[in-house]
Structure formats: C-alpha cells, structure tokens
Amino acid sequence: MAQPDEPHPPVVPSCPLPSKTCDVVPTERPRSCCGMALAGLRTAKYHLPEWHRRNAGVCFEAYTTGEQAERGRGEAKHLMKHAAASAQRAQGYSKATLGQRLQDLQFWRVELQKEIMELDAETNLLVAQKLRLERALDATEVPYSVVIDNLECRERRQPPDLVIDEVEKQLMKEADLIRDIRDLLKRTIIQAATQIRSNRIQKENCELDWSDKVETYNIDDKCIGYCTDSTDVQFHPSSVKFEENASTPKSWAQFSHDNISRAEQEKLASVQLRSLINNIIHDASEDLRMQRAAVSEAFDSHCRELDDAKLRLENHLKQILKDIGDEEANIENLKKAIRDKEAFLKVAQTRLYDRSSRPNVELCRDEPQFRLVNEVEGLTVFLEALKRKLMESEQNLKNLEETRMKLEKEIAVKANSIFIDRQKCMGYRVRYPVDLEVASYQQ
What we know:
mainly alpha; 7 helices
C-alpha cells in the first residue's frame, strides 16, 4: 500500500552570534621615563570602559546563546513530535500493507491447497483407471489363448474338412481383434502413466509454492506482530535493500497463477484421459462380446452342417450296406445258376459225346442230335451271359465296398470335425470371460 507524503519539519536557518570587538583607546598622557618602568604591569590590565564593554559583550553572547539554545530546543521538540507521529504512521502503514499481504498470501495458499487436493484426488482416480486397464489387459490373455487353441485344434481336422470355412474366418478375425485391443490397452497404459507422472510433477510444483506461501505467511505474520515493545527486535542496517533476484508483486502473483493454471490443464487432461479409458474399455468389451457371439454362431451353424452331412452319409451308408447284402445274395444266386446250367451242359455234352460213339451209319444227324447241339449252344450262351453278369455283380460289389469304405471314412472325418468343433473348441470357449468391462473391476 502506498504511503502518503509526510510533511517535513521546518528548517530554521542558523545565524552566527554577533561579534564584539573592544577597541582600546590609546592614552593621551605624555610618557615619562618612569612610566617605562611600569609598562610591563599596565599591559596586562584593561581600562574601565574596556571592562564594561567586555561585560556587555559576554552578557550579549550569553543572551544570544541561550536564545539559540531555546530555539534549538523548540525545534528539537517539534522534530521529535513530528518524527514520533511520522514513525507511528509509517509503522501503521507498514502493518496495514503486511496485513494486506497476509490476505493475499492466504488467498493463494487456499487456492494452491485446493488445487493440490483436487489434483491429488484426480491422480488417484487416474491411477484406478490405469489399474482397470492393466486388469483388462490381463483379462484378454484368456480369450487370446482360447482363440489360439481353437485355431490349433482345428488344424487337426482331416481332409476334406480341413477348409477355410466361416468359423476359421471368424476365429482369425477374433484373434486380430484381440491383438489390436491388447496393443491399444498397452498404449493407453503408457499414456496414463505419462499423465500420472505429469500430474505428480505439477502437484509437487504446487506443493513447493504452497510451502513457500506458508513459510512466507508465518514470516509476515511474525513481522506484523512486532512493535516497539518487542524484545526480539534489533538493528539490521544491511536489510534496507532489495535483492537482485527479488520478484515483483506482478510476477509473484503470476507465478502462482501459472502453477494453478498448469495444474488445471493437467487435471483437465487427466479427466479427458479417464473418459477415454472408460470408452476404450467399454468399446473393447462390446467388440469382443459381438465377435464372440459371431464365432459362437459360426460354430453352431457349422456343427449343424456337420451333423446334417454326417446324417446323410450314415443314411447312404445304410443303403450301401443293404445294397452290398443284396449284391452278395445276387452273386450267390448267379453262381448257383451257373452251377445249375453247367450241370445241364454236362448232361447235354455227355449225351453228344456218347452219341458220337455210334457205329457206322448209325452216326446220323438225327433230330435228337440237332436238339442236343441246340441245347449245348443255348446253355453255352446262357452260361456266358451268367458269367458276365457275375463279373458285373462282383465289380458292383467291389464298387459298393469301396463306396462303403469311403462313406465310413467320411463319417469318421465328420465325427472327428464335430468332436473338435463341439467338444474341444466350444467346450474350451466356456472359459471365455463374461465381460471385459466387468473383469476390469475384479480384483
């Protein structure tokens, strides 16, 4: 606080005391020779007028000296009164400015303390969010291991089921999604750690400023309590100067203002980062949930397709087994028919053979001979036809057996695929976390 101009004491010009010169009147008496003898005695004495003048001069000097001393005492009294009033006013003004300074210090101290507490609370909230990120990152390990295990299990499928089907595509998509989420969570954890470090650095700056304010407040509060009756005051002539590194009131207030402003900026950045973390965890959880549902739907659909294919193959296998049985019975019937026809052929050929032994003219091409020849030829044709049919039936049986083996192999492949997808993969996916967002809150 600026002090008003104090009145200066009146200046009394000094005036020199009047000097009095005593003139000695020379004697007019004639000198005698006898007077020379007494000259040594008369020279040390004054004449009566000289004595009077001398007394008058001493009295005048005493009067002027006393008057000057009285005037000096008046001036001193006035100066002491003025100095006392001026000192009292100066001390009052100093005390008032110290009081105002204490109010300013208290204001900034309260503001800094409030900012420190808010920044500390915000830092604790951000630390909690960073812990959520770390837990969410840990929670992604199980889904990722489940996906990798599913992919590795499905590699053990047998051809022709070893195909890049919809389940394979969804699993690859899920693996890529989890890798992207893990990378995002790791980057966000680094960002949160950086922001926490910035918050703590700014909090430390505010605490240092607050500590300086508290120390200064105590010093000024102690100074405002000093008075002329204080016993712990003493002279410090060297203190009446300004330090070269001393701040101005403007720079002093600006320093605390800048600390609070930077703390507000860090706090705002921390709040925005916490909101971003919430959104990241929520979006990642939703993406994983939707992709998990898509994979489960693909598994269910593929398992239904495998069941249908396996059922159709089993139905075909039943029909093939029936056909194999029928074909085997047909082959047995053909063989029996061939044996029967061969018996007839033997009879006919034996008859012809025996009739070829007829003597002379009895060896005649009679009607029985022609009938026997026709019978043999007919039986031969039927036997050849039956044998061809037997060969065809045996080939058909062979084809049916091959088809049966193929069907049984395909059914085994489908059963293996169903076991892998339903028992191995879908059974292992039960360990999949229910919700990533919920897992981030769990201890």
